Amino acid sequence: MAVRVKLRIASRKGREVATSALVNSGFEAETPQLLVPRRVAYELGLWPPPVEAVLVEVGTAGGPVRNYLIPRAVHVYVEAGGRTVGPVEADVMVSDHEYEVLISDVLGSELGIVILDLRGKWKFSDEEAVRETEEPQYWF
Question: Check: CATH 2.102.10.10 for 4-132?
Answer without folding.
Answer: no
